[in-house]
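hey so i finally got around to running the thing on that chain from the lab meeting. sorry it took forever, my laptop kept dying and i had to restart like 3 times. anyway pasting the input first so we r on the same page abt which one it is
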Amino acid sequence: MSKPFNITIDNGVAEMILNHPPVNAFDSAGWFAIAEQIDALGVNEQVRVIIIAASGKGFCAGVDIKELAADPGKIVDVNKGNYETFRAIHRNPKPVIVALHSFVLGGGIGMAGAADILVASECTRFGVPEIDRGAMGGGAHLQRMFPVQKVRYMYFTGEFIDAQEAYRLGAVEKVVPLEELLPAAREIAGKIAAKSPAMVKLAKEALTGIEDGNLEDKYRWEQGFTLEAYTMGDSQESRDAFVEKREADF
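ok and heres what got predicted. didnt touch it at all, straight out
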């Protein structure tokens, strides 16, 4: 199976471009592959900064709902793959810039919320529609970007917010036209790559250490509720309705 991303390294900047049509929704194997590659870039001496972006219709639609609809037991592997990916970003010794466009959903929220710096195209929309998919979302990662009450509104309603609102709330460093997205990310990466790698590594470790609470522990707490949700009939009905393109019947 081909990897669901492309990698380039130039002048100390590694770019991971997610590439899994049509919507960059990954199955459990895909998430593990992404996590493994991000970890590898973190220990690559040629890499000083990592950019994660995506090709296609949007940044990331999250997990492959069809895999879970066919086998709900896969939730254990999917949870683990998500956890490892978000950890690989958040705990990476190198700064990670995530460049977002169009839809940022589910696992895409986790990647964005784990990142050090975000840039977004004008067409970007953030959402956690898990409540309509019979699962729980990445509230810990969402709350790293947005205030508590905004997170709860998004979580309970499944509604989206756009790039300008994300910028207003302080989550996004820049909002640019789509064609300027990667250049904007590369400009920031270049500034960081020009600094002392040893100092940048210390800075990231220091900043991660002073965060409020442990992001990975909080996400593991959430994942327990995702697993619990998958034992409920409403969860299966939500996934079946999504796959069958119909309204759920609760």
